[in-house]
TrEMBL record:
Residues 169-330 form the Polysaccharide lyase 8 N-terminal alpha-helical domain. Residues 404-672 form the Polysaccharide lyase family 8 central domain. GO terms for biological process: carbohydrate metabolic process. It comes from the Eukaryota. Residues 690-758 form the Polysaccharide lyase family 8 C-terminal domain. Belongs to the polysaccharide lyase 8 family. The keyword Lyase applies. It comes from Crepidotus variabilis. GO terms for molecular function: carbohydrate binding; carbon-oxygen lyase activity, acting on polysaccharides. InterPro entries: Chondroitin_lyas, Gal_mutarotase_sf_dom, GH-type_carb-bd, Lyase_8, Lyase_8-like_C, Lyase_8_alpha_N, Lyase_8_C, Lyase_8_central_dom. Residues 1-27 form the signal peptide. This is Polysaccharide lyase family 8 protein.
Amino acid sequence: MVAPRYTSMHCTHLTLTLLFFSTPVLTSNSLTGWAGTTTIGPTSSVAQRQDAVSSMSNIRKGLIVDDITDSPDTVAQWLSTIGNDGKWPAKEIDYTSGCRAQEANWPAQMHWQRILSMTGTYSKSPTDDLRTAISHAIDYWFKNDVTNAACLQEGGGASCPCTDGTFWNKNWFANIIRIPQLVSQSCLLFDASLSSSQKAKCTAISQRSFDYFYQSNPPGFLTGANVLDIAKIGVDLALRRSNATLLRDAYAQVHKDAVVHNATKVDGIRFDGTFGQHAGLLYNGNYGKDYLNDLLDLELVASGTEYEASHEVQDAFTRLFEADSWMLIQDTQAKSKKWDLSVIGRMITFPSADEQATGAVEGLINASRVSFLASAWKKPSISSFASALQTITSSANAGSVVGNRMFFTNDYMVHRGPNYVSTLKMYSTRTLNTECVNAQNPYGFHLSDGALYTYVDGTEYQDIAASWNWNLIPGTTAINSPSLLSTSNLSCDKSKFSGLEPFVGGVSDGTSGIAVMRYTDPSTRALSWQKTWFFLDNDVQHVMISNISGSSVQPGNVVSVLDQRTYSSSKGLFVDDVQVLQNNDGTPSVGPSLPKTPVKANIWHGQVGYSFPSDSISSNKFTPSVSVGIKTGNWSSVGVSAQSPTTVDIFTATITHQDFTAPVEYSVFPGTQDATAFKNRLNALRLFTLSNDQHISAVYDDSFGTAYVVFWDSNGGSVTFTPPASTSITLNATSACAFIYRLKTGSITLADPSQGTGKADVQVTLGGTGSPPPSWPTKPKDVKNISHTFALPSGGMAGLYDYLSQ
């Protein structure tokens, strides 16, 4: 069973008025004093350590209280309905436990969530009635708490039969993390009012979770975000008991994990700042967000003490923040930040109203706390992330981060223009495609098949997952069969796979990039293809698809998806320079519709344009088409949300492949304000195709004097081109690779997408009598070729680019 990760925070500020905890208030003006109040080292006396632990405890209590958002009126309502036995009515809390309980987001945990909120209110406005109610509620759970240790992980099995009537859940996460989290925090806040027996039970519940660190053969779940979740329980226990030894041990567990992890499919922070969980899944926006919050709180508490993070831990944490900055999207309508869909995994199945990973990031990460930590550690990158959370931009580019980055450890590329963001998620032998757990995401098989999301206003894919066609994920190529009209070919038990192909990844020079994916369907082996995405300097993307094959697939039965998103009514839809749908009348629930319509040359919609080579369409090699229509979906069919069905007006643009032997290419123009701007940029494009087949994918962008080359074969390849007013240039490599060659500077940025080790040799050769590139050396005279040897990184950095200039 896998952790549901449903806890939502509503953190918008950080002013920690710590009430009667006798702790300095944390504000933006008191950070220095706060950090200095607990400064001690390993040689400090026992009394000094105890003073530090006391100060840390007060700061921790303030952080807990600051996270509680339930109003006094809400708490008063709970007081009016709680029974004398400490239990709330079944209509308010479903206490169903054991085998019959809902495994994801266990409803019974609401009992402790209420207790925590009540203890927070009590810390501000203590009353006898509130203290009594809290005590009764605590006793009610403790009387029913699980007593059979086997039920913590093996509920429903022979060692913990369904007849066990105590409080436990078949999902280990509820028993080992979620309930102990709430218990440890509640008991820390309410410690002065706890009876001796209550204190003992608080300790027992927290300790049984932390004790998993001491097992000689630790359980498999003790990785990634789970490590910090459990260590944090230990910290809260140590602070409540003023146990400096336990506190030191808990922080040691935190810092042992909060470093860069380099093994393939490992959980935790990776070299490029991505966060992995469940052995091969990209999860910065969910498990990574929890990890960030845990570490953020723990390090704010420990700052200036012997328990604070080492430079190694600080550097790893900074990498996480830097990567997260590339994954933020500005929702320009809601004026909030969202995560890119590709970094939240199965949580894509929640509507934003549930305030989970699809909701506002400002409600999930406290920007003020991030700023405090950035100041304490003097880390500008962390400060930039906080600023991005707090600054509203006019486009989807939250934080105004511009450029290209390849996150090679998780087969993920991000390209950010001045007014748009494009993200690309692939998978390989080193990563997984998706997961279906706790009834979430049963149809997500294609979510990493080269999924390309394009955000301009940030609302493109808002709350669409219940309604869209799961076989037509944006950017992917799939079999176009009758099953595409439904989800009959998709299921939870056939959703999670490792990729079959190693040649997946890309290269980036920070400004532009190339992403490549060789794909074979890991479930059926019925479809294979190669695809290259060129992210160019001038806010143009060029896509090449080649080498399509399949054992039982016929021409016309394979489709590539340009996009599937919410229809944008602001400026209509243009097909072949003609507006086919007018602007909407302002009632999106009954928005416009358009039956499947063929395209001959171009599409413009939602500030994104697409252009296709006319010769390929006229020869019937492939057929682009668009459609718009209302779709209604039930969230309960894709996950566990209880929200009402959602109706979405969906725009779908696809290419049907009529001839598998014919490679396909097209250009994408994101961030074009209207159809006229799109045409102007299209007419200004000076992009030349050098090769597009199963061996070589290459283009030359004359506007910037840059060649983009992919050699797919293991022995490399060669490609020749002649820039205008220049001599011919031949680029040769001795191994499979992807590289960017800038003629003006002579620089070559190269990577091996398969992440093999060793070297790559590249040779640049001039031919003919024209002018050489501007960067070509003049000495010795008449040099005709230059060779470069790239020593490619290995281990955890395999896949990272290498850069050479002449």
